[in-house]
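Retry 2 of 3 after timeout on previous attempt. Resubmitting structure tokens to design endpoint.
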């Protein structure tokens, strides 16, 4: 082979290598809010009102398993769990908590079981699930919380009990007027998403009314602080007021220490996250049932408050409806400082199984945060300035 031929061969080999390596290059993975999100079997992920546990380098996504048609708004199956190493590719791990075929069970098939969240207890080595529970055939009147436990993140979870939180305890910020008798003669004047209330919940003293049997608890979340203390955050007092309640060390009960915030603001869908600087942020929604509304946000230097409300963090088109979504969880990106992912649901109450997932990066600003719509985005490149 003469030198000209050698040069041609080297050139050809170079071109082939370049072509090969460009063929091997994987397209960048992306999250596409609002689209169908297929799991490893090609089925749209079925984990609504969900939350994520990051454990041993794996993400576990727990959520409400919905079925087709309006009946799908009640729990016919249970809590579904998926696992992923990268937040894009999800493996169906099956049903983590099954509804009970026994009609007498609190979690009998046909109950309403919403917003399940799972945390890991380092002291006991157990996985603890909390959820909003409405007893079968009682609409949303029961307003209870359920707790279940498992040895493994995929489950099976064993249902322990349901309750109304903090029976026989006053919140740390109880007011004198709560300690007075209940005003049951006052006529409701405010009609919100799930019923009517007087103009201000304190007029009716729902807190005092429920002191003995426990506080109402509907939309909820969990938050584990840096010191391992876990908190249950739930819409109480007929959704009018948010309660933040410390759990016991084993995460299986309420400790009796709790506080009430945002009285009369009707905040639902709460989710708390904490920055490296120690600021607690809250995202929540207004109370309009399955219909989307403008999100709420707030910040505090201590989880026990004072909490300062900041307004709707959504920006851009459809911000007033939070991009047709309602918050369900905020995921801190593991190993990254101050990168958080907003997780929301785009509900389809007429065919709940078709509900979509709206995940978007949360941009921290100086003392507040913003969420901007993206058609698709990648966790490695979504955050500005870092
Ligand atoms: C929403 C709530 C959902 C579900 C729904 C029922 O406000 O966030 O979790 O309870 O109401 O109407």
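Retry 2 succeeded. Sequence:
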């Amino acid at each position: 082979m003469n030198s000209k031929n050698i040069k041609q061969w080297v050139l050809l080999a170079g071109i082939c290598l370049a072509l090969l390596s460009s063929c091997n290059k994987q397209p960048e993975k992306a999250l596409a809010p609002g689209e169908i999100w297929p799991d490893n079997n090609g089925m749209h992920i079925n984990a609504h009102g969900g939350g994520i546990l990051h454990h041993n380098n794996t993400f576990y996504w727990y959520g409400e398993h919905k079925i087709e048609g309006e009946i799908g708004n009640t729990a016919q199956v249970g809590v579904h769990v998926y696992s992923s190493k990268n937040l894009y590719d999800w493996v169906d791990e099956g049903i983590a908590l099954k509804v009970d075929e026994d009609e007498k069970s609190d979690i009998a098939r046909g109950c309403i079981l919403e917003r399940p969240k799972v945390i890991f207890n380092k002291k006991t080595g157990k996985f603890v699930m909390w959820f909003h529970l409405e007893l079968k055939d009682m609409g949303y009147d029961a307003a209870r919380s359920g707790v279940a436990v498992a040895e493994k993140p995929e489950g099976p979870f064993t249902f322990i009990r349901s309750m109304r939180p903090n029976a026989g305890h006053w919140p740390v910020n109880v007011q004198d007027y709560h300690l007075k008798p209940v005003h049951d003669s006052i006529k409701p004047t405010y009609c919100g998403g799930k019923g009517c209330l007087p103009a201000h919940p304190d007029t009716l003293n729902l807190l005092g009314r429920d002191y003995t049997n426990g506080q109402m608890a509907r939309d909820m979340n969990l938050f584990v602080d840096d010191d391992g203390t876990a908190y249950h955050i739930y819409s109480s007092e007929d959704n009018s007021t948010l309660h933040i309640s410390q759990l016991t060390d084993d995460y299986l009960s309420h400790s009796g220490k709790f506080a009430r915030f945002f009285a009369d603001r009707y905040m639902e869908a709460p989710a708390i996250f904490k920055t490296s600087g120690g600021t607690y942020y809250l995202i929540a929604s207004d109370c309009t049932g399955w219909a989307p509304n403008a999100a709420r946000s707030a910040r505090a230097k201590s989880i026990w408050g004072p909490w300062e409300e900041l307004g709707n963090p959504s920006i851009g088109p459809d911000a007033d409806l939070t991009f047709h979504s309602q918050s369900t969880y905020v995921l801190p990106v593991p190993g990254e400082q101050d990168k958080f992912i907003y997780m929301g649901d785009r509900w389809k109450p007429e065919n709940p199984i078709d509900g979509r997932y709206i995940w978007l990066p949360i941009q921290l600003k100086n003392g507040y945060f913003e969420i901007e719509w993206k058609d698709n985005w990648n966790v490695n490149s979504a955050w500005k300035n870092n």
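Attempt log closed. The pocket of beta-D-galactopyranose is lined by residues 49, 114-115, 193, 219, 268-269, 289-290, 326 (CB under 6 Å).
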